[in-house]
């Protein structure tokens, strides 16, 4: 599969991507655990079918020490016992926040309360921003058909 468009090579696309990177930096500088961030980014990307992001976040998480068992079970996290209660709450919020069109009312009060039970307000703000930004990255990549090439290396983009 070839990309439809190189948005990074276009001045408008590059400017939009630069803002996404800035928003992502705010999240990475937060106290939301890096493991939780990677699991959420992977799950959102799985839901949206963003191959390039699935490749990237799987490799980044593995490079940071995440196990292949946990990475392989992210798609079935509800039935897996390898995730903490805090990670499970974050994954539920990520799923509901990504599938807002599928559920009347969007994120349920129960999902929010469960996330709030495990994450402080700064972490909730970071988690909310992460879900929103990851959905934006996924949509830009899916719309322009950015392929997963298999050659992504953790750290290649800074």
UniProtKB/TrEMBL annotation:
Q: Which Pfam families match?
A: CMD
Q: Which residues belong to any copy of the Carboxymuconolactone decarboxylase-like domain?
A: 25-95
SUPFAM superfamilies noted in UniProt: AhpD-like
Q: Its Gene Ontology molecular function terms?
A: peroxiredoxin activity
Q: Where is the signal peptide?
A: none
Instruction: Enumerate the InterPro entries for this protein.
Output: AhpD-like, AhpD_core, CMD-like
What the entry lists under PANTHER family is as follows: 4-CARBOXYMUCONOLACTONE DECARBOXYLASE FAMILY PROTEIN (AFU_ORTHOLOGUE AFUA_6G11590) (PTHR34846), BLL7811 PROTEIN (PTHR34846:SF7)
The protein in question is named Carboxymuconolactone decarboxylase family protein
Tell me the organism's taxonomic lineage. Answer: Bacteria, Bacillati, Actinomycetota, Actinomycetes, Streptosporangiales
